[in-house]
Amino acid sequence: MNKIPPFDVSQQYQQIGDRLNQAAIDVLASGQYVGGQVVTQFEQSFGEYIGSQHSVACNSGTDALYLAMRALDIGAGDEVITVPFTFFSSAETISMTGAKPVFIDIEAHSFNMNVDLIESAITERTKAIMPVHLFGRPTDMTKLMAIAQKHNLYVIEDCAQATGASYAGARVGNIGHVGCFSFYPTKNLGGCGDGGMITTNDAAIATKFRILREHGSPKRYYHDYIGMNSRLDSLQAALLQVKLPYLEQWNHQRRQISDRYTQLLQAANLPNVITPHHCPHSVWNQYTICIGAGKRDYVQSQLRDRQIITMIYYPLPLHLQEVYKDLGYAKGAFPVTEDICDRVLSLPMFPELSEAQQQQVVEALAEILTNV
Ligand SMILES: *Cc1c(COP(=O)(O)O)cnc(C)c1O
């Protein structure tokens, strides 16, 4: 039996390698390795795809989040509300600004922020809400935006896992005040290295972000802020420009794969498996099932023995991380998140995953779960 990896980014290279090679050669020959036309072109193409008026590239999704909050003047003494069930960057970047992450629990069915809990977490220090569109699925933005407006809070969308997802007709990243994207290779639009972008309809945010990513310098050797060096390499911009037109097709394939997983799993009627809630506007960065309490790690290792590699996003919630001891959250603070962390299992998911491979995964799960 052939090994089934959790993701396989080299398959895109097999599909469009010639075009990627040519784009890379063009940049190498041009001598323009930082900035230049290829970067502005990609910024513009990406902004058009999202539908935002402004889009500014940077070196990673992490930098996009951090510099977006800096552009909004978020810092020491401020609080930003986010979820404890996400990649560390979401909270890490809040802390990097000097502000304090304030966590609220998620919904079990969507794995996203339970927006009904936002208001109970708002204090006079709250400056912003950071929803994370986890695994490709949009957060309930209608309710969230109404609460933000009522309390005069900024909304920073962490879109790192949801490039191309939409909510009520708008693309994520074009709903809050600023959208933050990652082009890390395993994201839906992945480069061949690190990369990030913000999208916004607020010219002031875009301008300040642009200055901050270049040493806080509106004009070379004149510095208005403490910024950093966070540019998107010309090489990455050129490669991403080649890949962007394929994103819709790849996201469509991910949707088909997720539908097929759900059909196969439901037909197998497995005890101890909960399939993810159907969501037509998700872009399925991950297909994540929940396994009965106490059985997840056994199932994962049994799958590994059968050459099927799965992932656990995320094993330890952020409020229980060593680094956040001082925030004072106890175990039990966020029961849904804590329960989910013990039960989630992300199955192999990438646009080129074949039907036969999916069948192999589900058959293996059936074999394992009828014996636990
Ligand atoms: C990947 C990711 C980030 C960070 O993006 P990088 O480009 O790796 O810095 C932030 N938030 C979430 C939810 C992510 O999945």
TrEMBL record:
Biological processes annotated in GO: polysaccharide biosynthetic process
MF GO annotations: pyridoxal phosphate binding; transaminase activity
Keywords, alphabetical: Aminotransferase, Pyridoxal phosphate, Transferase
InterPro entries, sorted: DegT/StrS_aminotransferase, PyrdxlP-dep_Trfase, PyrdxlP-dep_Trfase_major, PyrdxlP-dep_Trfase_small
Modification N6-(pyridoxal phosphate)lysine, positions: 187
Active site per the UniProt annotation: 187
Keyword Transferase: yes
UniProt entry tagged with the keyword Nucleus: no
Entry's family note: Belongs to the DegT/DnrJ/EryC1 family.
Protein name (record): DegT/DnrJ/EryC1/StrS family aminotransferase
Organism: Pseudanabaena cinerea FACHB-1277
Upper taxonomic lineage: Bacteria, Bacillati, Cyanobacteriota, Cyanophyceae, Pseudanabaenales
